[in-house]
Specification:
- This protein has no helices and twelve strands.
- It is mainly β and 174 residues long.
- 18% of the residues are buried.
């Protein structure tokens, strides 16, 4: 932004160019505040959100399968390039009756390119076969990051064997 702008006489508007600089850093959407001030006038500011043109790919890693009742397992969220700022990532499960994940995790800035999170395996006490929820990761403030997703097979722990109990002997007509 230029340091000075002249408002032509008889108008109350002046136009100016804003040059967005590519910082070549993986830092997602960043705010830029521009302030206008002049003697005898109140200052005014406006904030512009600048979307990052660098991109990254998120990868979700969970065990291939788990039995109901295994409680908490460890998942891992990885990013293809280390961000220069801490990045918040939303996690979701397509079936929270089978597997639950925390709503949000943070990837630390700098050299760290992954973080662990808990995957809670739900025991629903129903004969419902294998459930296959999709775990998805989405960067909160990064417009051009590629979401990560994977599935986990949650194997039913209720047995499907029928049990039939009869008395050893019976009489006709009873």
């Amino acid at each position: 932004v230029t340091n000075t702008v002249t408002v032509p006489a008889g108008t109350n508007v002046a136009f100016f160019d804003v040059k967005i600089v590519d910082d070549a850093q993986l830092d997602c959407t960043q705010p830029a505040t521009i302030t206008a001030s002049a003697p005898l006038y109140a200052s005014r500011s406006a904030t512009l959100s600048i979307d990052d043109n660098e991109t990254a790919t998120l990868t979700v890693i969970v065990p291939l399968s788990a039995f109901e009742g295994q409680n908490v397992m460890t998942g891992r969220l990885a990013v293809s390039t280390a961000p220069v700022l801490p990045m918040e990532v939303n996690l979701t499960s397509s079936d929270t009756n089978a597997a639950r994940v925390p709503p949000r995790v943070t990837i630390a800035a700098g050299q760290l390119t992954s973080t662990n999170f808990d995957v809670t395996i739900v025991d629903d006490a129903q004969i419902d076969g294998t459930q296959t929820p999709t775990i998805t990761a989405h960067a909160v403030s990064c417009q051009n990051w590629i979401d990560g997703m994977t599935t986990i097979a949650v194997l039913d722990d209720e047995h499907t064997n029928l049990l039939l109990t009869l008395p050893a002997q019976s009489m006709e007509g009873q």
